[in-house]
Amino acid sequence: MTQSDINKGALLVLNSGSSSVKFSIFQLDAESAEGVSPLFAGQLTGIGTDAHLKAKSEAGEKLADEHWAAKDEGTVPSILPHLLVWIEANLPADLPLITAGHRVVHGSEVYDKPVLVTPQILKQLESFSPLAPLHQPQNLAAIEALAKTRPDLPQVACFDTAFHQGQSDLYSIYALPKRLTDKGIRSYGFHGLSYEYIAHFMQQEMPDLAKGRVVVAHLGNGASLSVLQDGKSIETSMGFSALEGVPMGTRPGSIDPGILLHLMREYDMGAEEMEKLLYRECGLLGISEISNDMRDLYDNPDPRAQLAVDYFCSRVAKQIVSLAVATGGLDALVFTAGIGEYCADVRKRISGYLNWIGIRIDAARNDVNAPQISEEGSLPVFIIPTDEEIMIARHTLKALPA
Ligand code: ADP
């Protein structure tokens, strides 16, 4: 399959975890500037316990809401062939599946763009697993499973790290001995597909601002911020792992590394216990002891909930200022992802810390999640809904052999 063979067909986009798979289907669309348009999307959750398929068409029509006990052999790779059958049964007969694009968390220093996966490349990507042990093996297991079921289907890996690969050493190393930096212990950054989507959107919709200095706050269950200049990543808050930077639903964000030494020595904590603590028990959930979900916290009068939300907002505000140092100032601020797109209260609290740098939010616009929420005379502040899936679909199409 090459680009010149393709004029009609469908693309599968997969984001595979340990017990769930999110999928989106796009069709080639010569009319659309990007060459693809969405058809339907869904997710398989609870794989191994109670596999459940939900899917909707682009127009919002329910396509599936069914339990898959009989098809669930306990793992994502074993259920994927069934998902593929379901997807193909729901595609119009004249739209064959022609390729699959995957979200792959780590491309290390090797990949600054997506790559068409071959068996050799898959092996190389497996060698990056120690850099992202919780996600990389799951992402790659899906590629392997699909290759077994459909060896003819070209598959493309799109990396969360790739967009940040152009950063200078100044913003991508740690103050560690050079011998450790040379072993790859450096800042990679994540959420790159989201930042790339925002950069591209701005280039299309607000080209002058896109050339400037823009902090993008990707505030979802996982959260990070990046400062872009002329659409390129200059510095980002997440680093070697997805733990650094601002607090998240269940991750603490940056903490004093001395705390980890203390936990190892005084509480006898090993790597696994520490991993569980840092990935699952901290952040909004840790502080509030109520929930990791901002929807349960921002208007909850419990002081623990309010402390968690204030901690989150103050650290995001601090991060915005800190990133703007790298670009010598700021021309726009963008909010995106679940919290950034929908939680007016959080945006208001964050901007409350930033009036002194000229960021002021218009309450009425903010309350309705308007595209531009800044007051007249403020530094422009936007809400731009992110779309990592369409970014993967566009990349996948481009990465097919010419
Ligand atoms: P993920 O990182 O899993 O892709 P999302 O970008 O979908 O996450 O964001 C999910 C998070 O967004 C939820 O955990 C929740 O905290 C937050 N969220 C979504 N909608 C709202 C809302 N209306 N108000 C406040 N927070 C929200």
Mean pLDDT: 96
Which percent range fits the helix content? Answer: 25-40%
* Widest sheet: strand ordering: 5-4-3-2-1-6-8-7
Radius of gyration: 21 Å
Bound molecules: adenosine-5'-diphosphate
Query: How many helices does DSSP assign?
Result: 15
As residue ranges, the low-confidence spans are none
- Record field, number of beta strands: 13
Describe the main β-sheet briefly: 8 strands, mixed
Distance between the termini: 9 Å
The percentage of residues in β strands lies in: 15-25%
Order of helices and strands: EEEEEHEEHHEHHHHEEEHHHHEHHHEH
Which structural category fits the helices and strands?
A: alpha/beta
Structure overview:
With 402 residues, the chain is of the alpha/beta class. The strands form 2 sheets. It has an 8-stranded mixed beta sheet, sandwiched between helices. Strands 11-10-9-12-13 form a 5-stranded mixed beta sheet, with helices on both faces. The model has no long low-confidence stretch (mean pLDDT 96). The termini are close together. The chain is built from 15 helices and 13 strands. β2 (21-28) and β3 (36-45) form a beta hairpin. The structure holds adenosine-5'-diphosphate. Adenosine-5'-diphosphate is lined by residues 220-222, 249, 293-295, 337-339, 342-343.
